[in-house]
Specification:
Helices cover 43% and strands 15% of the residues. It has 469 residues and is an alpha/beta fold. It has two domains: 274 residues, HUPs (Rossmann fold); 162 residues, Isoleucyl-tRNA Synthetase, Domain 1 (Orthogonal Bundle), CATH 1.10.730. The strands form five sheets. The chain has a five-stranded parallel beta sheet, sandwiched between helices. α1 links the parallel β3 and β4. α2 crosses α3 and α12 runs antiparallel to α13. It is elongated. The two termini are 45 Å apart. The model has no long low-confidence stretch (mean pLDDT 89). The structure holds adenosine monophosphate (AMP) and zinc ion.
């Protein structure tokens, strides 16, 4: 039986007990990066959260299938289907092709999340440009079911055909109408209608410099998919039409996710996602960090300044995901000191074989299972560290368990400390063989030889443990 997990569901605006569609399995889709620039450290908060969520489900013995998509086409500079494709913008900025831009920033993203302790092998990263057929199929269904219509610049979803449209975001559609901007597309039937497919502009630029580089043929005309459509098509392809959890930043609630729900549920005729989870923003002193503002902080900048990316991960986890964070270097310095304290303590207590303390484990998991309470879970870590009634070896085992669930990578402190030379490993392995053969003389001889090389070997019920003399 999996343990009870409670999550705040944006859909109901309540904390709910999590119930999987298939027992002990969970499908998660996290809206991924738009790869026209480096991710800023605010964007990365969304993926650190997604990774803790995955680990939390693993700790509760769920089998997790987790998707993070790569948006490499169709995300326009205005979320309301106006403006330029961000990939085109990136291509012009750097004098490269849109395809090269996508490739370059996808790799940069992978490097960033890897440094943050997000194991890329545990995820599937589908690219929007690799799923054009699935998107075209979805448009076909929506046209057949009477949810879409064509105007001069594209095919649009008719939000009037989905009565629950405003519910998810508590949208004030009437208010939106009265506040509509003058340049709003006059051909749209409703102000909230959104593009499923946009036609490539014709004769827009005779020099060809700004011609679209990413476009595909469809029965309706050459063009490119709408950003919202990509996420519906890819999530349903990998997780099934109806799946458990969808995550993203809070900025996605009113437009991107509302539109995903409208088009998906209209196409499949049943609920699309059971639990919607949204991370709050990370701001800096000047306000919300954003990629369109050229002055944003990247993880590489933090690394260049000498910070450990895992200390940044630790910093993020000290605040609950639904609360805003104001980033300051003072806060990162404090997180660095705290993280280093744990790291050094682990480094000093390597090779101590202990037992995970069940009491602390339960309190730690209760904090996490209560709507991903990472800040309370971290508080449990420090209570444990100060508890003199827990033996160091048990403390070490418990800390390593907590670290693995939060992805703090404290086990690596061990690897760094115990980078033993190949010759020492060979002698250690030979001693292991001698012991299984009950050749005690040879085993003792090898122990002496290792000691002469500066290593102490201890036999425990888990096997040999080696420490530096
Ligand atoms: P993008 O690459 O712009 O498509 O955004 C990737 C993710 O970052 C999305 O889930 C956004 O909601 C999220 N996001 C954007 N800006 C911020 C911010 N300042 N703080 C936290 N998350 C953000
Ligand atoms: Zn998305």
């Amino acid at each position: 039986m999996s343990a009870e997990i409670r999550l705040y569901n944006t859909k109901s605006r309540q904390i709910e007990n999590f119930k999987p569609i298939i027992p002990n399995e969970v499908g998660i889709y996290s809206c991924g990066p738009t790869v026209y620039h480096y991710a800023h450290i605010g964007n990365l908060r969304a993926y650190v959260f997604a990774d803790v969520l995955r680990r939390l489900f693993v700790s509760a013995r769920y089998t997790v299938k987790h998707i993070i998509n790569i948006t490499d086409v169709g995300h326009l500079t205005g979320d309301d289907d106006t403006g330029e494709d961000k990939l085109q913008k990136g291509a012009r900025r750097e004098g490269k092709s849109a395809w090269d831009i996508a490739d370059f920033y996808t790799k940069a993203f992978m490097k960033d999340i890897d440094a943050l302790g997000i194991p890329t092998k545990e995820y599937i990263f589908p690219r929007a440009t690799d799923h054009i057929n699935e998107q075209i199929a979805l448009i076909k269904t929506l046209i057949e079911k009477g949810h879409a219509y064509t105007i001069t610049d594209g095919i649009y979803f008719d939000t009037n055909t989905f009565p629950a449209y405003a519910e998810f975001a508590h949208l004030d559609v009437e208010g939106l109408k009265s506040g509509a901007r003058v340049e709003e597309n006059k051909e749209k039937k409703n102000i909230t209608d959104f593009a499923l497919w946009k036609f490539s502009p014709v004769n827009e630029d005779s020099t060809g410099i700004d011609r679209r580089q990413m476009e595909w043929d469809t029965p309706w005309g050459k063009g490119f998919p709408g950003w919202h459509l990509e996420c519906s098509a890819m999530s349903m392809k990998y997780l099934g039409q109806h799946f458990d959890v969808h995550t993203g930043g809070i900025d996605h609630i009113p437009v991107h996710h509302t539109n995903e729900i409208a088009q998906s549920e209209s196409a499949i005729g049943e609920p699309f996602v059971n639990y919607w989870l949204h991370t709050n923003f990370l701001n800096d002193a000047t306000g919300k960090m954003s990629k369109s503002n050229e002055e944003f902080l990247t993880l590489s900048t933090l690394i260049e300044k000498g910070y450990n990316p895992l200390a940044y991960r630790y910093l993020l986890l000290t605040t609950h995901y639904r609360k805003e964070i104001t980033f300051t270097f003072e806060a990162l310095d404090a997180a660095t000191v705290a993280y280093k304290k744990l790291w050094d303590w682990c480094g000093e207590h390597i090779n101590v074989s202990g037992m995970v303390n069940d009491d602390y484990k339960q309190k730690f998991l209760n904090a996490l299972y209560d709507d991903v309470g990472t800040s309370s879970a971290i508080a449990e870590i420090w209570t444990l560290m100060k508890d003199t009634s827990i033996l160091d070896n048990d403390k070490y085992a418990t800390l390593l368990y907590m670290s693995s669930v939060l992805g703090l990578q404290l086990h690596l402190s061990k690897k760094e400390e115990l980078d033993i030379p190949e010759r020492v490993q060979i002698l250690l392995d030979a001693r292991g063989v001698a012991r299984t053969e009950k050749n005690w003389n040879e085993s003792d001889r090898l122990r002496d030889e290792l000691e002469n090389l500066g290593y102490l070997v201890k036999d425990t019920d888990k096997g040999q443990e080696i420490t530096v003399k």
